[in-house]
Amino acid sequence: MKARTRAATLLLTPFFVLFTAVMVVPIGYAVWLSLFTEKQSGLGFGGTETLFTGLDNYTAALGDRAFVEGFGVLLGYCLLYIPLLLAGALGLALLLDSALARARRFFQLALFLPHAVPGIIAALIWVYLYTPQLSPVVQAMEAGGVGFDFFSPEGTLPSVVNIALWEWLGYNMVIFYAALQAIDRSVIEAATVDGAGAWRIAFAIKVPLVRASIAMVGLFTIIGSLQLFTEPLILNKGTGSAVTSTWTPNMYAYTAAFDRNDYGLAAAASVLLALTAALLSFAVTRLTGRRKGGTARRPAPARRTAPARKEQPA
């Protein structure tokens, strides 16, 4: 037992050291920073004084309409983006896993390649494709009588969702495809022998068996959606779009820190966003755990046998 304990400690120590350095310490520092604010005396000509303000920065962030509206933007983004991502990635994975698929390796690579492009580069590419004076896509749409302004208040959210889908659809498709490949083929063969068609095998057998992967991808997608920053930031720079500098909570914290030099307010906004992500992660985990428990098969009750019949003496 002592040897196993030492081995486990030796193997786990690097992880906990790295986790403490890159997660616990920054979060603790952000919480500490959010309790202070810097003020200048002498009409701006004096020195900077750091004052302890307690929860004032949190009150200021929650009382700021721009910060609260940023969560509304995230809500609309999640309601539009997450179902499209999960359905699209799962549908592509089921298609590649089906017997009708051809050139699977080519399509896996082709669909995964957009994820290899950095987010900033991807956003710049799509800004070019969204610009009416430059984009051949917009010109083709206008030639066909379809007019859509990707930078308008109504088109901004779909534009950002489209960029995110282009980046992450192939990545999550690979996760679902790997989960489908791990399914015991004898189960599918038995269903085929019983007369089940392709649609029934896909949605009545394959999808329930990869439910854990769907829940994991959904959880990670929710956490990533709350951190939305790169795509709207690029759209905000010189495109004339409806994206403002405080369009999302992450952009609000960035603007507070680097444009207004209010690091306490930025830290408070970041902590509130982290708490929101933690609460949503906990809720999704509990919800998926309950569903698994509710759908677990109960053992069949023991079959009662009739008592042996005694023979009557002659």
Features:
globular; 13 helices; 314 residues
- Shape, principal axes of CA atoms: globular
Q: Main sheet, how many strands, which sense, barrel?
A: 2 strands, antiparallel
Quote the average pLDDT: 86
* Uncertain residue ranges: 296-314
Please give a structural write-up:
Strand 1 and strand 2 form a beta hairpin. The chain has helices spanning 2-33, 56-63, 65-97, 104-116, 119-130, 136-143, 156-181, 185-193, 198-209, 211-226, 230-236, 249-258, 263-295; strands at 36-40, 48-52. The longest helix has 33 residues, at 65-97. The chain is mainly alpha-helical. Helix 4 (104-116) crosses helix 7 (156-181). It has a two-stranded antiparallel sheet. The protein is globular and about 85 Å long. It starts with a helix and ends in a 19-residue tail after the last helix. The chain has 13 helices and 2 strands.
